[in-house]
Amino acid sequence: MRFGAGYGCDNVRMQKVFTAERLWDGKRVIDHPIVIVEDGRIVAIQSRDASEIPAGAQVSEFVGATLGPAFFDVHIHGSAGHDVMEAKPNALQAIGAFLAKHGTGTYLATTVTAAMDTTLSSLEQLAKLIRRGPDEAQAWPVGIHLEGPFLSHVKRGVHPPGLLQKPDIAVFDRMFEAAEGHVRLMTLAPELPGAVELATHATARGVRVSVGHSNATAAETRAAIAAGATSATHTYNAMRALDHREPGILGTVLTTDSIFAELICDGIHNAPEMVRLWWKAKGPDRGLLVTDAMSAAGMPDGEYQLGGFAVDVANGRAMANGVLAGSVLTLDRALCNFLAYTGATVEDGLRAITANPASMTGLVDQAGSLAVGQPANLVAIDSAGALLASIHAGTILTS
Ligand SMILES: [Zn+2]
Known about the structure:
The protein has helices at 89-101, 116-132, 169-178, 195-204, 218-226, 248-255, 272-286, 331-342, 346-351, 355-361; strands at residues 2-3, 15-24, 29-31, 33-38, 41-47, 58-69, 71-76, 78-79, 82-83, 104-111, 140-147, 183-188, 208-211, 231-232, 261-264, 287-290, 302-306, 309-314, 317-320, 323-324, 378-381, 387-392, 395-398.
């Protein structure tokens, strides 16, 4: 990276310019891009082939790199020693500062199954913080993902069995109201009684339904999709295994082209062959790389909290009672792993952590693209998917 000299004049607004080999804005590629930033916002995206770098601008050049939108993680519980269910300003600040350094601009604050009073109070506090908006240099939740309590006992993973509930529209509505409507995604096991009715109801309220933590048959999964389900929660994990006579939830998710599907690409949750299978099945428009990260992400080995329960973290594995309990993954690492396992292009990898989650959630105005007028939240990526720099509101956080 090279920095050009800046010649700020008192009567001229300071402009920052970011250049690279290529830029992917969420839809198209621009060769030899120039991104011009003023007061933390993008004021122009051009090609050097057609225009000049403005005189006096402070230039950061990422030689050979691709510029792309900041990442959007639709499944994350915490990091930097904090869980989103703490729902305190200092917790979200710590999480947001850590994520921003790893290229993430936006996320869905993801709950785990907990006592209803705890869940409702977390949702109320999260809603206030989401409404208030971010401080500088932080990734910020643009909504909430409810992971639980409407999950299968058989595939609950680490969700506390005594707190799981059958799908219930009144319970969902209490959570939705507590969150002031900021719930954007809900994981739901399709085989539970009342799941189809709840999927229909939640979809009508603008919440995307993601099938998961489930032992559903193919028929049960198809019924949830017909009722509006649009995505699948951490494909393979906490999911009925593939069977050639009963394809189940997994076979249905992999072969239904309209369905988005999350994947935790940390080298621990899934073997590389299964990452390739997921990629072949879902392709560049339906894959969602997520972290499912918990509070230990970015922290040393030790004991941490996920929602209300203790998790032991050693050598990159987060475990509770012998079961994987989230991850310590970051999306920049997930991107590298994904490219190494599949040979996919940087642009296709970026799609799975920017445009696809924005499209799945419908939050295309707030995440997943680069455009004039938006905050200058972008990343510079090398050809292997490694994060060279995370730029937040026009400021380089890492390089
Ligand atoms: Zn999770």
